[in-house]
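Hey, quick one: can you model this chain's 3D structure?
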Amino acid sequence: MVRALCRLSLFVVLVLGAARVALAQRPGSVEKPRPRETEDASVKGRQPAATPAPVMNVPASGRYRVVLAGFRVNNESYDTFLETDGKGDEIRLNADVQEFGPDGQPLGAVRRLQTVIYGDRNKFPSRITAGSRSAKGGLQTLDNVPAVRDPWVVRDAPQPDHLPLLLWEGELRTGQNLVAIAPTVWELDSDDALNPANMVLALGDIGNNVLPVAQRLPGVGALSELLITGAKPAFTVATMVKESGNRPIGLSPGTDGYNFVPQIVALTTRSAELALAGSGGARSAGVVEVRYRDAAELKGDYSLFLRIERLP
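Sure thing. Here's the predicted structure for all 312 residues.
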């Protein structure tokens, strides 16, 4: 029985071999060589798939709102040992807002916004209690304001001087206007007033800092980047500012001291729609993170969260 099965198997092999030879000899027939398989054949020469650029249906115009929802202390700034100005950091948020026309020229004056002060309320009753350093506040590393896990979510009606802070609301027209918003975060070490008598730094005209940015664009309608670094330092600090003084977070070493260069949110219909789609520099859909990091010896590191909304 076994011999019979072996003879039958041999016969089948011979028949199939003969059939292959006959087919190969037919006119016009070419047996394609089978590719040699190697261990890395599946990946050799493979190119990574290109990420397609988002296809945007940019409206001719639209109404939008931008709100500073909250902020996060990624790392608290340097403070004196005694913390006589309050425990931890004391923070005030500022924002300069400027609208530009299609030629890159300003439309109207710079609008300057300023919040109340957030931090340790002990002996400073005008402050808003914020932070976990003490029972009465004091901002320290990893604190969020408001004190929620997602400070980029707008939970209350926008305010003119409290969080959530209304930065801008109005109409954007494709190719016709651009709105530049320069939000900044200030640590107050001397007292709670920002005025030339007690400031280490003058605020400077941050709004005008965006003018070179707008002028270098090939028409404001072509702008797709949402977050742009300022074209030049807004000001330079020639003295050390660790011990005391009111200053912005985000000072970097310069040739004559420390420089401060603002981060600018540049809104057009296109960049706003990209942000709402979670592209173009947005942290997530409609959320823009503006981060300021100090030089290492100053330690400060803060993230501001702006929320862009499309209005009816």
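One thing worth noting: The longest helix spans residues 2-24.
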